[in-house]
């Protein structure tokens, strides 16, 4: 059973309404008068980080990738639970964790610490409080919306290649990604649809179009990339944790962002890239680590 | 860095008040007028389950051990987030997950699915709603309280040995433990102190005494065990997920439970077993799997 089959089978179980059909970045639950946003992401050695990486960076990234899911919902972090497999350089791990929690002002709530052999596994659950309801989803894009992205894509890819090849270069974007929490909060009241780009712009735009049952047309020449000679790589590699969102046509984004396309009636494919239909998601994104599937 | 050192270092980070100093079964956070209880436990192949075990049982146990932490706080489950590493027999895993969620009436909220090599790792976050505040802690025992335990201890140990040795016998207590949710809810308004026995009665009683800054005296002859000839094993092996709690002297427990001791002023040691002081926790509990530390 691969990931797609596994998740499809999970959809047959008893799902919470707030699970959003297991098709969003995070779960959303109403508790009294509050709306909570919950997410859980794992990182596996050799899959989601290179064995030679600084464990302080691994801990930072574990926090940041989860907070990025809260950012995509416009949520303010309340706290985190850590699932930690003990191993080498745990002091560095705790330093990186400390830096991330301090940077984002997020306290530790608890978790679990286990021993293990083989590749290390970490899990993190982030709990946030919605700053705006309804909480933006992937599924809210509307015909005529403009499609935007924050930041510049491809920096994480270059950082990864620098680490892998042990060359000179800036690895920050890969090793210490930033969760766009402030941007997410500013966008939540305005965006029809929003998600973070964890698996690559094209794959994530494809998913947004599928969830919204519309088509998204992207003009690749408009996409801000770190290396125009590798534009396609920058649009598919992922790990940038920027925000992809749609706004009603004419609404000016309240945060720095670039318009890269528009939302159209559902056409022949969920995604159109420079007018060409992209029919299936294979090869559109996520190939972070050398042995990842 | 071992588990104790790691957790001690984590206590130096920014902790949420609801983290209870990382010394309780679960975190407790106030959200509006509600009180939420959150817990996260991992299970690692070869550490927390035997590689030959039915993956349906592994999934069940992953749910049950987390719900047991909610039970110890008297909380009603709201939902769970699953961190799943793909591997063999995932169809069986989903069947067991389905059975556990249906049995406890707990919906799936979301989570993460990853690929990995080597021993499999799973994580589960359970979110509950407190049925009574203040939420019972480990730290609330008072001098003069009576100490109680639900159920009969040692059944999980026998189940584990049956599985390990491939002999005939009932493995249910080890393979499909039950979370004492109803008992926890009934006890929450009355118990001064409460926790689940995941790591063995003596170790967990030691921890309750430490957290409450008192001594707990246990009369081993009163402890209900499945095999009186292996009384000490039954009191230290763990994995029984019964509830250990203290009530003011004279309060009759509203659920089936056995009085096994009493709470005393802090004496020479946190724990007294048949009048003998137990000064440190080494060897008191948790040796679930053959290669565990």
Automatic annotation (TrEMBL), chains A, B:
| Binding residues annotated for Mg(2+) 3, in chain numbering | 25, 69, 196
Which pathway does it serve?
A: Cofactor biosynthesis; thiamine diphosphate biosynthesis; thiamine diphosphate from thiamine phosphate: step 1/1
Q: Which residues bind Mg(2+) 4?
A: 25, 39, 69
In which residues is ATP bound?
111-112, 138, 198
Task: Give the keywords, sorted.
Answer: ATP-binding, Kinase, Magnesium, Metal-binding, Nucleotide-binding, Thiamine biosynthesis, Transferase
Binding-site residues for Mg(2+) 1, renumbered to this chain: 41, 112
* Annotated Mg(2+) 5 binding sites: 199
Q: Known catalysed reaction(s)?
A: thiamine phosphate + ATP = thiamine diphosphate + ADP
Annotated coiled-coil segments of the chain: none
This chain's function reads: Catalyzes the ATP-dependent phosphorylation of thiamine-monophosphate (TMP) to form thiamine-pyrophosphate (TPP), the active form of vitamin B1.
Mention any additional remark: Reaction mechanism of ThiL seems to utilize a direct, inline transfer of the gamma-phosphate of ATP to TMP rather than a phosphorylated enzyme intermediate.
Q: Identify this protein by name.
A: Thiamine-monophosphate kinase
Instruction: List the lineage, top down.
Output: Bacteria, Pseudomonadati, Pseudomonadota, Alphaproteobacteria, Sphingomonadales
